[in-house]
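[Q] Does anyone have a clean structure-token version of this?
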Amino acid sequence: MAADITQLLVDSRAGNADALERLLPLLYDELRGLAARALSRERGDHTLQPTALVHEAWLKLVDQRQREWKNRSHFLAIAATAMRRILVHHAEAARAQKRGGGSARVEVTDVTGLGTTDRLDLLALDEALEDLARRDERKAKVVEMRFFAGLSEEEVALALGVTTRTIERDWKMARAWLRVALEPGAGSAKG
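[A] Here you go.
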């Protein structure tokens, strides 16, 4: 099945619309799992459901002009990034609707040990990841793939074309950097 998915990804990258249509049913359960994981970290009153998040992400993915999906892990990493963007957009919209427009804290459960508390502010995490990406894009991608997509270190290594040991080091360093960046009153991390 992994070979089938990889071939469909290659075919869709070449512009084969039929391959793209056949891809969603094969990946739907995994995408829904990604969405459920992402939403389980969100605040309890979130209005998005996993199915809606999958559909929004799928529309973003198929609307891309260039599809450079290399394999299943790489595709799931890109899907996780799309889901993160959607969740951040929803968090920003929720914040804008609050009186004063800027003080709402939209939290996600910290299940990976990134922060020092049980909850993380999604907008603060997004800002910290953007800052990390400017400093070290690969480490930011590792966080996206591990935290948002729930990919294993081996899957991340495959998607990024590096060794598992490199991903282990990147993951450890990125978590340490984010812990500092996400401390209350820290602003942006130095480094």
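[Q] Thanks! Anything notable?
[A] The first strand starts at residue 107 and ends at 109.
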